[in-house]
Design a protein that fits this description.
Layout (H helix, E strand, L loop, with lengths): L6 E4 L3 H14 L2 E7 L6 H5 L2 E5 L11 H10 L4 E3 L9 H9 L3 E2 L4 H8 L1 H10 L18 E5 L9 E3 L5 H16 L4 E5 L5 E9 L5 E13 L2 E7 L6 H17 L4 E10 L4 E8 L6 H8 L3 H9 L4 H5 L10 E8 L12 E2 L2 E3 L13 E6 L6 E2 L6 E9 L2 H14 L1 E3 L5 H8 L2 H4 L7 H9 L12 H17 L18 E6 L7 E8 L2 E3 L6 E5 L3 E6 L2 E9 L4 E6 L3 E7 L14 E3 L4 E6 L6 E2 L4 E7 L2 E6 L4 E6 L6 E2 L4 E6 L8
Parallel strand pairs: 1-2, 1-4, 2-3, 4-5
Antiparallel strand pairs: 6-7, 6-8, 9-10, 9-12, 10-11, 11-14, 12-13, 14-19, 15-18, 16-20, 17-19, 21-22, 21-28, 22-23, 24-25, 25-26, 26-27, 27-28, 29-36, 30-32, 30-35, 31-34, 32-33, 34-36
Helix pairs in contact: 4-5, 12-13
């Protein structure tokens, strides 16, 4: 029996909500958005036909409150629920509650979610179904190292810890339990062998409610940082045909073993040296990386989910009975508001501009090109309450080399004026020799970060060019704002004895950088004459550099930040340094500042305690991840200014570790 869906609510937020709404519009289905107070200004709220507020700001108050979500949907006359990914998307009790409320669940049966929700139970089921699994040692010894601690529920790398020393096992188990409990409401974890040089390969499956199921291609998701995927691609490169077929068969067997229906993903760990693979987990939902599969197969996976929920057969939904051969190659990267270094520190704040060149958004590309699924836009605020993913950049091309080349080009041309992002990391990955050769492993990215430290920002971070351009734009703005002596040239001096100087803080530089310039009737010039200003305004500066014309887009923020972009080859973020330091901004030596806004979850040290450099002082939680704040040097804790549960702002003084002063002798 077919149920025609007319109104669909998404029990989620951000880009996945907009993604589902796009398919709803194409299918003639009305849509309902749910939004927390922190998300009220995000684009997805306006993308829906109906938008319903969930009072509160945190996930626990809003998207994780099943009763509140269902009541909000029913109050709007809702008919069906798409869970997106994360939050309650793999919560069997929520799926049952949706169905008990008389709503259509756009997802797999609750029993299938429950069977795969516990990774330990899932392994037992897979073993019985003949799917190869990694066996966890009951009493691990040094010879079993390294080990991987994993959360039984959820995903996204949360609650995962690599253990390389047995004396660290208990501490890592405790940390994993705490993180898993915070992220998923379930603190259960387990241990399995950690394969260092493996690849993470997953298979997309589709099952209808009539017992028909297929494998709809595969993806490689090996490039990960902190066990969270950074770059994904389809099809998985370099897989032997026999391995690919065996993986697809194992994935379909996994789906049949739990009576699956809807879209799902079976994840495997693949060892290229032995050409063996093992079951990792099954995600009983749509994956973040589903667009790359959509590109190479031409299948709208959200539309397929809706069709299956309506009771249609796979043939009716897809128009074919077997997985099509992939067409071309697709690559996706996740753009985050976070530092591009190994710390991956989440960032928050407002984006004055967030512009990524693309051909389409949220839906299938008609031909090779660029798709961007973004949860934020110009003016959007990134809060500390949710995941910091800004957008997914998806490039589809005739082959893998062209896809990676186009990806680099798009990232370089993006205008990202706001919090720090991981763009430099993504660009570096797309140009990494091992990635270009298809030799990715799950440890490659961590290895690269360890070798090089933070990826250096693109642009002239070690020269005067960027600061000079910024100084020219600032001078032009000051000239426009003058209310007196408007005809006097900017920076005019009757007797010129030295150049004007404007100071900037530059990322990666410990000391401020001084931009020197002269001004007169002929405009602004550099002391060396190597750069001649052809045009200057607060938004645009044009230079002649030895016969080469360079055009800079400039954005001057009232906060003092300056963003420079030049034809996709140079970009830079600067901050104007005031001439005098406000005494209110001064902090004591040894102060530990909050690296990001967040919540204090644990205070480890006490006032008066002696600590060594690197010792944990307290633990912050931001954007569903825990971050340990450590002592910067040996010394004594003289101040603790926060307690567990406290909300802190970025840059707030959390504690002070004073160095021990040598005793004075008479």
């Amino acid at each position: 029996m077919t149920t025609l869906i007319r109104l669909l609510a998404v029990a989620n937020r951000g880009e996945i909500a907009s993604r589902v709404f796009t398919t709803c519009r194409r299918l003639g289905i009305e849509s309902q958005a749910l939004f927390s107070d922190a998300d009220a200004g995000l684009p997805y709220v306006d993308d829906a036909d109906i938008a319903t507020r969930l009072p509160g700001r945190t996930p626990a108050e809003t998207y994780l409150d099943a009763d509140r979500v269902i009541n909000a949907i029913r109050a709007a006359g809702g008919q069906s629920v798409h869970p997106g990914y994360g939050f309650l998307s793999e919560n069997a009790d929520f799926a049952r509650a949706v169905q008990d409320a008389g709503l259509v669940w756009i997802g797999p049966p609750p029993d299938a979610i429950e069977a795969m929700g516990s990774k330990t139970r899932a392994k037992d089921l897979m073993r019985d179904a003949g799917v190869p699994v990694l066996e966890a040692p009951e009493a691990p010894t040094e010879t079993d190292l390294p080990l991987l601690v994993k959360a039984s529920a959820g995903g996204g790398g949360r609650g995962m810890r690599v253990v390389r020393s047995l004396d660290r096992l208990d501490a890592e188990l405790e940390a994993a339990r705490a993180e898993a409990l915070s992220a998923f409401g379930d603190g259960s974890v387990f241990v399995e062998p950690y394969v260092e040089t493996g690849r993470h390969v997953e298979v997309q499956i589709l099952f209808d409610t009539h017992g028909n199921g297929i494998a709809l291609g595969d993806r490689d998701c090996s490039l990960q940082r902190r066990h969270q995927k950074v770059l994904e691609e389809a099809p998985a490169p370099g897989l032997p045909d026999g391995v690919r077929r065996a993986m697809h068969e194992a994935a379909v067997a996994a789906g049949r073993a739990v009576g699956y229906a809807s879209a799902g993903t079976v994840e495997f760990l693949y060892d290229p040296a032995s050409e063996r693979f093992w079951f990792l987990e099954m995600n009983t939902r749509l994956q973040v990386e589903h667009p790359v599969t959509e590109c190479v197969t031409g299948v709208d996976l959200v539309a397929a989910q809706i069709g299956i929920a309506e009771g249609r057969t796979l043939h009716e939904v897809l128009g074919f009975d077997e997985s099509p051969e992939p067409r071309g190659h697709a690559v996706e990267v996740r753009l985050y508001a976070e530092t591009p270094d190994a710390a991956a520190t989440p960032q928050s704040g407002r984006f004055s501009r967030l512009d990524i060149p693309h051909d389409t958004a949220f839906t299938l590309l008609g031909d090779f090109g660029v798709r961007v699924d973004a949860g934020y836009a110009d003016g959007s605020e990134v809060s500390t309450h949710y995941d910091a993913m800004l957008a997914k950049v998806i490039v589809w091309a005739p082959d893998r080399g062209q896809a990676l080349r186009s990806l680099r080009h798009v990232l370089r041309r993006a205008r990202l004026h706001g919090p720090v992002t991981n763009r430099e990391l993504l660009e570096a990955l797309a140009d990494d020799p091992e990635v270009l050769a298809g030799r990715m492993t799950t440890t490659l990215l961590e290895q690269r970060l360890g070798e090089r430290g933070a990826y250096e920002p693109a642009g002239p971070g070690d020269t005067e060019l960027g600061p000079f351009v910024a100084a020219v734009a600032l001078a032009a703005r000051d000239a426009e704002r003058r209310t007196v002596q408007a005809r006097v040239p900017v920076g005019w001096r009757n007797v010129v004895s030295q150049p004007q100087r404007t100071f900037f803080d530059v990322p990666g530089r410990d000391e401020p950088v001084a931009a020197e310039w002269y001004a007169g009737r002929d405009g602004i010039r550099h002391p060396s004459e190597q750069w001649r200003v052809l045009e200057a305004s607060p938004e645009r500066v044009v230079l002649d550099t030895g016969g080469h014309r360079m055009v800079f887009e400039v954005r001057l923020e009232e906060s003092g930040e300056v963003f420079l972009d030049n034809d996709s080859t140079i970009r830079q973020r600067l901050r104007v340094r005031p001439r005098f330091t406000d005494p209110a901004d001064a902090v004591a030596s040894g102060s530990l500042l909050a690296p990001m806004p967040g919540t204090v979850v644990k205070v480890v040290a006490e006032v008066g305690a002696a600590v060594s450099a690197g010792d944990a002082v307290l633990v912050l939680e931001a954007m569903k991840m825990q971050h340990t704040v450590t002592a910067p040097h040996d010394g004594t804790v003289t101040e603790i200014n926060v307690e567990p549960g406290a909300q802190v702002a970025s840059g707030e003084v959390l504690a002070v570790v004073a160095t021990e002063q040598p005793e004075e002798h008479a």
